[in-house]
Amino acid sequence: MITVELAETPSFCAHEHWGSIDSIGMTPEGFRADVVPGATPLRRTGLMDILLDPYFGGSLGMAGVNVNSLASDSGFANFREMALSEPVRAMSALRPALKVQRMTGTYQCIRRGVMRLYGIDIDVEGDDGIAELDSRIGNKYSAPFAWYREAMIEARMNGLIRPVHPEFYFADTSSAEASSELGFTNTVMRIDPLLGMWPTDCPRREKLAARLGVEPRDAASWRRLLEKLFDKAAKSGSLGIKQLQAYSRSLDFRARTDAQVAWKGPSDPDQVRAFQDWIVHECCRLAHDRGWPHQIHVGTHNLSHSSPLPLSTLAEKYPNMKIVQLHCWPFLREAGWLARQHRNVFIDTCWLPVLNPRYYRNAVEEWINYVPLHKIMCAHDSTSVEMAAGSLVFVREILAEILSTQSTATGMGERLLEQTAAMFLNGNANEVYLVH
Predict the structure, then answer these.
(1) pLDDT for residue 412 is more than 90
(2) Residue 358 and residue 367: Cα distance in Å, rounded?
(3) Which of 93, 235, 241, 367 would be a feasible disulfide site paired with 371, CB 3.0-4.6 Å?
(4) Distance CA 190, CA 414 (A)
(5) Within 13 Å, how many C-alpha atoms sit on residue 332's CB side?
(6) Could you report the per-residue pLDDT of 269-278, keeping only the tens digit for each?
(7) β-strand 30-31 against 26-27: which pairing, if any?
(8) Global pTM?
(9) How far apart are CA 29 and CA 166, in angstroms?
(10) CATH node for 11-18+144-434
(11) Is the pLDDT of residue 341 over 70?
(12) Domain residue extents for the chain
């Protein structure tokens, strides 16, 4: 059996959330890094900002851990205060809660990413090692975009796309920090905020309308607003669109006539759904006309309503729009079937190693002998560059093992197997997002 070596194979990070950490902060729209170009930390960044990110911090909360209680037991007002003033003590207080999370993909991706980029293992380090790591993270995040570039070179990442809110494209980009970030970061525009612009009183809709000079009152004015928004995003370098409606509703977006839609009002489920369906189809039409990819969150939450199978309708109606199914667990067979049946449907395994490296293994093993090889991509969907680096460690290890077994199963030689890995890790995403 051939051993496939992927340590130097570049990774295209086509769906990332770097900067979604506490020290960089929030805005009313969401994570500040998704709204403000060049968003830098509002205070010193430390180890606990990377460790207690939305993913792993959320996992601790779901397991019943209240980190602020840990801090109050030690005489601090909250855990943030404790982590900033005494990071070693904060880590010691947290370690009992980490023991039951030690094998989870989220923790391991952070841990292995920290090892890859800093050479320190948070599982075994004593007080001196934790203090050193906290200090080094603080230094790196004093200039985060320089750090991202450095970390990307170290981990062999050669492309970055992050989904951002529509407001991102109206923000000031004249600062050195914004210029630095936009010098290597591509974006796709989130359309999910648009689907929430139904209520009669919607300040976010009104602000967007004022910026674009269009008051959306009916089908015609909504189309003008969306067209101007897409033009603005395109001029600002957007490569496509993204939505995460699968968190809250099915992906069955029915075609609606203008007459079927009420354009704002009270919270009526049927009217809200009709409005959302109409908005999605209009956004798909605009993406189709521009040849833009459309990233769509599939599975992982809301499992009774997040199957990707209804996306077949969008794929057929908008053939010039490449649909990229994100995550896909547990709907691996359904996602694979769609990618095989429709020339414009693709798959990205992003977030699977963070959820559970076994999910990533299962996905690749499910698809590799069924789905055309140019349809599979492997981004990371990480909240920090450290987590992305750890996810990439798992991706390279697992993909190398799977491809090595394919040398026996298919008779493919080392060169062809390494070419396949390069497609998954880099080439396919480059074709989907950068080649039109």
Answers:
(1) no
(2) 14
(3) 367
(4) 40
(5) 16
(6) 999 999 999 9
(7) antiparallel
(8) 0.95
(9) 10
(10) 3.20.20.140
(11) yes
(12) 11-18+144-434, 43-140
